[in-house]
Amino acid sequence: MKNDLKEYVNQINWLNTITGGVSMTAIQVAHDAEKLVISLSAPGVDPESFHIFVNNDKLTIHSFLPEMFDKFIEEQEEEEEPVPMFQRIFDIPNFVDSNHIQAVYSHGQLQVLLPFKDRDEAPRRIDIDIL
């Protein structure tokens, strides 16, 4: 915990002195007939700084400074993680096809597209036989 706090303070200090500060990441969730769309807007953050992971029924979105992500990958084995600039974990609903999630960065906005499963895969009713 002490190392996490130290890392966080160092990151804030570096961001505020070198880059002139950081703006908040804005998140919007919308849907249409075919998919959910998670839109993130983070002014001043390069698209290479975002990293998206799917693990079981969780979608995790991180953004790190480029050199911090390398440290994050290295420290995964050491059980210590640097503090990301942004992190959000979303539950993936059971009606989303998690094998076909995509991400697109355009005009300063990251969009994560979560397509719905085919209607054929919807739950089916099972009749109960009475003996």
Automatic annotation (TrEMBL):
Residues 18-131 form the SHSP domain. Pfam families: HSP20. Belongs to the small heat shock protein (HSP20) family. This is Hsp20/alpha crystallin family protein.
